[in-house]
């Protein structure tokens, strides 16, 4: 049985930028997480992680991303979600495109972990069918 369990709000270093996190459980075993951060003006960055390979390609990410978008939209009013995986990360890019989400742009992104080429996907809840079905 797949379910998402809400973890209490996690505040980042500045109180203006909350992170909201859902832990993904499969048969009562935590298998991943999806969280939003940099929430502002009804938009948020999304990070999705399935921790172990044996839990991938089972429909976990598809189910959880749909549930999470519905949950975060209902509870926080978020209408746009931004995902920025590494351009060379073929599995996540292929997964997002399988949900009919196309990259808006590719650009050089710098984070605390370094600089890399990223694909930016913007999911607008009002104009997408990601949460349907």
What does this structure look like?
- The structure is a single chain.
- With 133 residues, the chain is an alpha+beta fold.
- 20% of the residues lie in helices and 46% in strands.
- It has helices at 60-76, 90-98, and strands at residues 2-11, 18-26, 29-40, 43-50, 80-83, 105-111, 114-124.
- It has a seven-stranded mixed beta sheet, with helices on one face.
- The longest helix has 17 residues, at 60-76.
- The chain is globular and about 40 Å long.
- Uncertain segments are 2-18
- Compute the average pLDDT: 78
Write down the Rg: 14 Å
User: What class would the helix/strand composition place it in?
Assistant: alpha+beta
**Helix and strand run:** EEEEHEHEE
Summed up, the helix count is 2
- How much of the sequence lies in strands comes to over 45%
Give the N-to-C terminal Cα separation: 18 Å
Number of distinct beta strands:
7
Main sheet strand line-up:
1-2-3-4-5-7-6
Quaternary structure annotation? single chain
Q: Helix coverage percent of residues?
A: 10-25%
Lay out the secondary structure.
Elements: E1 2-11, E2 18-26, E3 29-40, E4 43-50, H1 60-76, E5 80-83, H2 90-98, E6 105-111, E7 114-124
Parallel strand pairs: 4-5
Antiparallel strand pairs: 1-2, 2-3, 3-4, 5-7, 6-7
């Amino acid at each position: 049985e797949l379910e998402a369990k809400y973890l209490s709000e996690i505040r980042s270093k500045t109180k203006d930028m909350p992170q909201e996190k859902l832990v993904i459980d499969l048969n009562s075993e935590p298998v991943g997480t999806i969280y939003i951060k940099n929430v502002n003006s009804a938009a948020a960055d999304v990070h999705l992680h399935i921790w172990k390979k044996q839990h991938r390609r089972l429909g976990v990410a598809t189910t959880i991303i749909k549930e999470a978008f519905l949950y975060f939209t209902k509870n926080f009013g978020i209408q746009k979600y931004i995902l920025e995986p590494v351009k060379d990360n073929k599995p996540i890019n292929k997964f997002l495109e399988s949900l009919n989400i196309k990259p808006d742009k590719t650009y050089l992104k710098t984070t605390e972990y370094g600089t890399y080429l990223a694909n930016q996907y913007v999911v607008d809840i009002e104009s997408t069918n990601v949460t349907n079905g």
